Amino acid sequence: MACMKLGSKTDAFQRQGQAWFCTTGLPSDIVVEVGEMSFHLHKFPLLSRSGVMERLIAEASEKGEEKCSICLPDIPGGAKTFELVAKFCYGVKLELTASNVVYLRCAAERLEMTEEYGEGNLITQTENFLNQVVLRNWKDSLRALQTCDDILSHADELHITKRCIESLAMKASTDPNLFGWPIMEHGGPMQSPGGSVLWNGISTGAKPKNTSSDWWYEDASTLSLPLYKRLIAVMESRGIRPEIIAGSLTFYARKYLPGLNRRQGANDSNSSARLAPVALGAPPSEEDQKLLLEEIDRLLPIQKGLVPTKFLFGLLRTAMILRASPSCISNLEKMIGMQLDQATLEDLLMPNFSYSMETLYNVDCVQRILEHFLAMDQITGGASPCSVDDGQIIGSPSLTPITMVAKLIDGYLAEVAPDINLKLPKFQALAASVPDYARPLDDGLYRAIDIYLKSHPWLSESDREQLCRLMDCQKLSLEACTHAAQNERLPLRIVVQVLFFEQLQLRTSIAGCFLVSDNLDGSRQLRSGFAGSTEGGWASAVRENQVLKVGMDNMRMRVSELEKECSNMRQEIEKLGRVKSSSTWGNVSKKFGFKLKSQMCSAEEGSVSNQNNRNGKTGKVKDRQGKHKKNLSSDG
Fold first, then answer.
1. In contact, 114 and 123? CB cutoff 8 Å
2. Torsion angle, CA of 617/622/627/629, rounded to 10 degrees?
3. What's residue 551's pLDDT?
4. In angstroms, rounded to a whole number, what is the distance separating the alpha carbons of residues 20 and 619?
């Protein structure tokens, strides 16, 4: 830390309890009371340097007191600062440093220690040191600004606070490597003015590594919240990038809000890992943390991607614990909603901190966050209709974020579904909030519904059907269809629909395999004409053909199994119909909306239709022979 020496005389001050005495050999003729400390001094050194002391001593002398006593209750910096002022008046050696120059400058202004009362008076000396030394150095400017906290009103009157903040903002917006400022980068080596590393004060000639844009975060975090806010405001006005400002705010919040550090993962940034426990001291009170969190919320730039989503969730969780203002919580939810596609399932699993404890997790908060995301997605033009074709999304490329959010919400629904206190309308509302086009497959939604049905076995049949209507049976994968067909928790209507659409999928897949096989045969013939004796192409074609054949065999087996299941189900339904009435089967078929007899058990005919077409001529000959034999037998 830089310093400037003043005075030349040896120290002649001695302290005895709560009193200071000047041991110059002459008896003191004035007592100055500053706080609880008494200074036994001499009139002449004081009145020759200070206009205030001159007037006060003159007033006391008019009263005819032999030993005057003066009280100075409002000296900036108190008794410690007045001790340095008294030494300056006596010409005793003292040092101006960044730690005391602000106190001395304000005290000199209060005591009117101008050039009128002596050349090179204290106001001039402190101003020169501030401007020429302190404000040109990052560390000294920071230290001087920290001392402004205790005498903020006096420092603001003299614009010392503003000058220190301007100095810091200017240096933070400039690459320190360009000027070789002596900046200690989080415990790293000191730099000489030439930019080389110093070792024991000697230049080694080695160049330090380039500093990153966050080199000032830790130093700025040592400021009090009012000063830090003013520093951030000046930095924004100087055009410092919003992501750098957001990084500093994140660092500051993590340092003074203990709740944010409890869920830090191993993948946090290096700057976060360097954070010590809340300023290596006692954590702030809950009220102070609440005020800090609300201020951080107001300072954070509202722009997607500038603030880590995990950090925003940590702020929201802490805000709920500290009972922050509703506007603060709402603003955090909106900021999270803007970048919900960057969140993880762990982020969404926020415990319910309300007194009612209706549910284990705060489902209402996630519902509001999702609504903010969908509203923002519509504004940005991302929510355009699309369709699902062969398991792929057809639509705008901007649908990727909403697809990620749909998957995230389905995973969240599966996590909260086991909560027995989670009511059906709340579960349905959250699941239905996701647009249909955002889910290329409904497997995740089916899993969540199945878990909810398992955890809520008391639901009525109508409630079960209403819940299952949330998913589209046509958007279930073959694996999900297989599971749903054997799921006893699903309503019978849903199981039949699943079986029907699964059979359609299998028929489509088998037809596609035949088509691919035909194309493969044609392409193989073309390759044989062009490639000649190329063995690699033949080997690849043979392997592809074998894979297709295995897939077709598996599909035929699955079709056979489905036909058996359909037959068994039809027999059971017919038994129920005979008990009730003969027309029940017709009502059931009408209820399901399709003909079970003609469509659900015709897979085998469809699966072999392609083979019959390929052997068309042989089939026609056989038909003619059969008709001829039939005519002969009838004639006989």
1. yes
2. 150
3. 62
4. 124
Q: How confident is the model over 202-213, as pLDDT tens digits? A: 555 555 555 678
pLDDT digits (tens, 9 = 90+) for 440-482: 988 999 899 999 999 999 988 889 888 888 888 888 888 888 8
Name the one residue in this structure whose structure tokens are 């109508």.
462
Contact 81, 40 (CB under 8 A): no
| Pairing outcome for strands 392-394 and 387-389 | antiparallel
Give which of 125, 88, 122 is closest to 108, Cα–Cα.
122
Task: Answer for the pair 390, 509: CB distance below 8 angstroms, yes or no.
Answer: no
For the chain, helix (H) and strand (E) counts, in that order, are: 28, 11
**What pTM does this model have?**
0.71
Reading phi first (left if > 0) and then psi (alpha if -120 to 50, else beta), residue 349 is in beta
**Tokens linked to 348:** 């969404």
Cβ contact 320:261 at 8 Å: no
DSSP letters spanning 151-179: THHHHHHTTHHHHHHHHHHHHHTS-GGGT
Amino acid letter for position 591: K
pLDDT of residue 140: 95
Q: Is 189 helix (H, G, I), strand (E, B) or coil?
A: coil
CB 151 within 8 A of CB 102: yes
Query: Half-sphere exposure (CA, 13 Å, Cβ side) for 623?
Result: 7
Question: Tokens standing for 577?
Answer: 């119909």
CA–CA distance from 364 to each of 328, 353, 413 (Å)?
Answer: 16, 12, 12
CB 179 within 8 A of CB 236: no
CB 414 within 8 Å of CB 447: yes
Instruction: Evaluate the CA torsion angle 544, 548, 553, 557 in order and state its sign.
Output: positive
Helices (H), 380-491: 399-416, 424-433, 443-455, 461-468, 478-485
Tokens of 443: 């497997």
pLDDT of residue 50: 93
Q: Are 46 and 53 in contact (CB under 8 A)?
A: yes
Within its chain, how far is the Cα of 246 from the centroid? 11
- CA dist 80 → 34, 48, 83, 406 (Å): 9, 21, 5, 64
C-alpha 558/C-alpha 502 separation (Å) is 10
* Structure token digits, residue 212: 């990153």
Nearest residue to 596 via CA among 473, 495, 510, 491:
495
Share of residues in the chain with pLDDT > 70 (%): 69
Residue 547 neighbours by CB distance under 10 Å: 10
Phi and psi at 202, nearest 5°, equal -110, 135
Report helix, strand or coil for 367: helix
562: part of which helix (H) or strand (E)? helix 535-580
Q: Give the span between the Cα atoms of 143 and 219, in whole angstroms.
A: 10
Lowest model confidence (mean pLDDT) among 186-190, 369-373, 542-546 = 186-190
Query: For the residues of 259-293, what is the DSSP string, one character each?
Result: GGGTT--TT--HHHHTPPSGGGSPPPPHHHHHHHH
| Beta strands in 182-253, from DSSP E residues, in sequence order | 198-199, 202-203
Buried b (16+ CB within 10 A) or exposed e, 25-56: eeebebebebeebbbbbbbebbbebbebbbeb
One-letter identity of residue 319:
A
SS3 content of the chain, % helix, strand, coil (to 5): 60, 5, 30
Q: Which residues touch 258 (CB under 8 Å, ≥6 apart)?
A: 277, 278, 283, 289
- At 427, the amino acid letter reads F
Q: Is 2 left (phi over 0), alpha (psi -120 to 50) or beta?
A: beta
